[in-house]
Amino acid sequence: IETYNATFYDEIKGFLTNGVVQAFLIMIIVGGIYFEIKTPGLGLPTAIAITASIIYFTPLYLQGYAQSWEVLIFVLGLILIVFEIFVVPGFGVTGISGIFLVVSGLFLALIGNINFDFQGIPPYQFNQAVLTLIAGLGFGVGFIIFLSSRIGKKGAFRKVALLADQEGYYSVPMEPDALVGKTGVAATVLRPSGKVIVDGEYYDAVSDKGFINKGDEVVVRRYGSFQLYVVKVKE
After folding, report:
1. What is the CATH code for 166-232?
2. How far apart are CA 20 and CA 210, in angstroms?
3. Helices then strands (H, E): number in the chain?
4. Could you state, in order of their start, the residue ranges of all structural domains in the chain?
5. Contact 98, 125 (CB under 8 A)
6. What CA–CA distance (Å, rounded) separates 185 from 198?
7. What pLDDT digit, counting tens, does each position of 147-194 carry?
8. Global pTM exceeds 0.85
9. DSSP tag of 168
10. pLDDT of 217
């Protein structure tokens, strides 16, 4: 009888495929995607989400649970979300489709199907995958609410609080309704996200219609998703 001793590599794989760890990674992925959607162009949330995704999928792929096409579904979902953030102003069908593919990829990687054959999946394994996904998404929502409540002095959902300190950009919390209808100037190119100056302060903004060049006069149409939505003033 030969005794198999688990190697350090095996222990790492076992740790990363633990349901609790997987739920935690899903939480990080969801949180990273959410905050990148809410603050387009920041980059850090995307980097965190991608790192968590690699840690999530790699051991599942090596263990034979995650199929290549399931990883591709997830990647395609991320691409659609990025396209929605940086190319298409607002948030619509492309972004929703991307989120659906991302969640589908996360779930399918857990159930251990063989290619497109789902017949031989044990019920306990399917149920565990469902619980892991629900837990990860639930923790993700809680993480988003918790972190959002810390943004700004009185909460990101009640105030505009833009905390970027790069290149001298800053702003102070103020009521969103006070900015709607005001005119300002594009401090950077908006493609569609960027910076605008309104009443002498810098704010994160998204173009509601097309690209806006630096220096163009803009008017604030609405506030949502922690940022201003502006359009170019017609000449």
Report:
1. 2.40.50.140
2. 43
3. 6, 5
4. 8-149, 166-232
5. no
6. 7
7. 877 654 444 444 444 444 444 444 444 566 688 889 999 988 887 778
8. no
9. G
10. 93
Residue 47 amino acid letter: A
Q: What is d(CA 164, CA 187) in angstroms, rounded to the nearest whole number? A: 14
d(CA 43, CA 38): 11
Of 58, 23, 30, residue with least CA distance to 46 = 30
- Beta strands 201-207 and 227-232: pairing type? parallel
Structure confidence at residue 72 as a pLDDT band (50, 70, 90): very high
Residue 221 phi/psi, 5-degree rounding, is -90, -40
Residues ≥6 apart with Cβ < 8 Å to 163: 151, 152, 170
**Tokens of residue 28, six digits:** 């990080």
Residues 6+ apart with CB under 8 A from 160: 152, 171, 173, 174, 175, 176, 179, 203, 223, 226, 227, 228
202, β-bridge pairs = 197
> What tokens were used for 169?
């950009």
